[in-house]
Amino acid sequence: MKPTAQQKFGWSGAFAVIIVVSLVPVFWLIMLSLKTPASATDGAFIPHHWTLSNYHDIFSAGLFTSALRNSIGIALISTALAVVIASSAAYAIARLDFPGKRAILAVALGVTMFPQISLVGPLYNLWRQIGLFDTWPGLIIPYLTFALPLSIYTLSAFFREIPWELEQAAEVDGATPFQAFMKIIAPLATPGLVTTFIIVFLLCWNDFIFAISLTSSNAAQTVPAALAQFPGASQFTQPIGDIAAAAVVVTIPVMIIVILFQRRIVSGLTAGAVKG
Amino acid sequence: MTTGAVAAPAAAGEQRPRRRQLSDRVRAERKLAYMLVGPAVIVMLLVIAYPFINTIVLSLQRADLRFPTENKWVGLDNYWAVLTSHLWWMDIIHTLIITLVTVTVEFVLGMLLALAMHRVAFARSVLRTIGLIPYAIVTVVAAYAWQYSWSLNDGGWIPHLLGLSGDPLSHQFGSYVAICMTDIWRNTPFVALLLLAGLSLVPDELLEAARVDGATAWQRFTRITLPLMKPAILVALLFRTLDAFRIFDVIYIFAQGANNTESVSMLNYSTLLNRLNLGLGSAVSVLVFVCVMIIAALFIKGFGAGAGPAGDSG
Lengths: 276, 314
Known about the structure:
The structure holds 2 protein chains of 2 kinds.
Chain A: H1 5-33, H2 53-60, H3 62-95, H4 101-113, H5 117-130, H6 136-161, H7 165-172, H8 177-206, H9 209-214, H10 223-228, H11 240-260, H12 262-275
Chain B: H1 2-15, H2 19-59, E1 61-62, E2 72-73, H3 77-83, H4 86-119, H5 121-136, H6 139-150, H7 157-162, H8 172-199, H9 204-212, H10 217-228, H11 230-245, H12 249-253, H13 264-274, H14 278-304
Antiparallel strand pairs in B: 1-2
Helix pairs in contact in B: 2-14, 3-14, 4-5, 4-8, 4-11, 5-8, 6-8, 8-11, 9-10, 11-14, 13-14
């Protein structure tokens, strides 16, 4: 069925609304970040006085730069660990036959549904006793745990799609098992690994509940926690321009990566959820 | 492909005389599998189970970090204190309202988006790109973006657009609308993508056959598309409902639950970390966990009963 002109017009109108609704809050943040503190609350969409002083502020005060370092470091390490540990588990789930496979998937599902807030109390208590409070490992451990189920589901969905018989074919043709793996399987598995890495990184990057509960200083505080505690001029005013600028800095690079890899991310998100 | 075809009869031929060897191979495969899944299972059990047992133990104690010397066993007193408090039940109601509103709107909008993306090819790429923008944004940032949009005091554009004289964020209804909108804005695209994956499993021939037989568009949707999409719908609704029930980030940024918008996770956080009452807070944690289990069980039971193909005819 070819859409009629009228239908096309209707669709275009609907799209315009969706695009505007999706983009307006982001646009608003960008504009707020470019306003001077005096005009931040004037309600104008386009700043009357353009300034980059908010960006200068956040990068010259130590809070944001350390939070950015903590966020990137903690999320990268958690993600790398999760993808490595989950790869071996997902390989076993996708390719090997063993009793208890369903039980493992059930444990992973249970972890996904577990309310994170229910771990905050004991982890807060335990971390202070053993010296992990306000440290990188103190956040990496819970992030890794909650990232594992998503990694396992996504990776095993990808691994099931790989034509593993090619490996045997290469070995028959005289390749060593190592060569067969490196030349045939690794290139086929890489897109799935990269996709999983991005999805899991976003999960760790987004966390707020552990970050606000298990850190207290710039030693380990991540960006979401730091944003919630940005010091204002007084107790009752928020530094809107600074928060907006920091929000823009942490959002734009991630957004570009997500849009570049959009096709893969969508297939990863849905494969893990629907087929798992 | 050829190796597979050659290897299969050979393996079958070996099976009978050397049964012992095959079971060795099975055993070796199982051993390898357990070694491969071991680390993941150990990490998940250790980091979830040990602290959670700790939570249950703490919930049976008077454990206040401000008075560390006065710890003692109090049985179910903490649970009694929580379950008889007005605050707990109010927060349950707040959380359920937010869950019901956001999940319903996200499902309806997500379904409309998924249908649009499924039917119109160029919609797929445009909407996918646009839809992933909210997904790329940290929830805390999304909450700030919408808070600054709604707050009259912060010069937000929404009160100006609607011509409001009062600050919508200064009363309960306005705060609810802003909080729900933030959640809906961030999560609808994800729901749409999950439902789109489910839609692609519905065979076009079936819909075409029904159309030829005279079924209306609505009949085709409710009698064919929806039943066939059941697994995808279950996944999308279950995960969104659980996520919405655990809502914390957005509530925290929107004035930490001011104007009677406090969620159970927010209550749990403030009992634990603002009042430093570990015993009472742990009891709240266990109760939140029980609520999540009840929701999951209701979903799986409600959907599971009719999940088979036979159950779909009625």
